[in-house]
Fold this protein.
Amino acid sequence: MKKGLPLVALLAGVLLTGCSVSAPSAAPPPSPVPPRPVGVVEGPGAVPSPVAPGAVPQCDPRASLRPDGALPAPGAMPSGTTMRKIQDRGRLIVGVDQNAFLFGYRNPATGQLEGFDIEMLRAVAQAILGNPDAITYKVITQAQRIPVVKSGEVDIVADTMTITCGRLQDVNFTTVYYEDGQQVMVLKGSGIKGPDDLGGRRACASKGTTSIAEFQKLPGKPVTVAVDNWTDCLVMLQQGQVDAISTDAGILAGLVAQDPNTEIVGRAFTEEPHGMAIAKENTDLVRFVNAVLEKTKANGEWAASYRRWLEPRMGPQAPPPAKYLP
């Protein structure tokens, strides 16, 4: 037994020595950088070019063309009118969003487009064709709204579109069918309390909107990040790639509904009257749609749609009164 002790001790020493030697530790892998949505433009390139003073004539953006008397019966549109062309085609062609929850979005359960804007368009299709489902939807980005109207690709765009004097140089608008105001959306606990805290922060908005120009007027001027769709802004906010989103409160309410870790903060700092865009030459369709909007406000359709889509998040609102040009 005694003769075996040195060997045991030697083996123990070898084992202890082996345990004390460690391989060089590998450097931890770098944290993955979240991919950015396609089409992001940041900084000066995202800010619209300033409009020269006097380039846009002053106007009352809320005033539209007065309806021409009572609405004709569905399916009995007067000969030679834009409405008759739509009737003969058998479909109303419209430009809409599919990413603006509450206004125009694709229901993942049904694949159908739904929302407040969609229901206003269904009322127009019912008035012309006698069928609210007789609509061909063209899904567009915010930046495509005016081009598709001017090119004649669509009859109407209803896509959370603010009526402005500048836009009235390119398209006609109906009367106001929804009143909104621009606010700020952030992650909870961000420390941002409202629009005045955006100086030097990265603020996201969709291309082709008035939102970018409006928050560039704020003190400190945020760093602008422009994207194709509002849901791109939400993804970038969630990933910490932007500090805030700023646009109409109704659009922000739809984004907050998709992420309870976000919130709308501070005051509304603009007025945003929404209208439907129609080609400049189709004034008869503008007057017709204005008559349809009057009807929805009078018969309770507007109120029912507002209660369904917007009131739970935006609070009560009466139908905006129609205002017409002299």
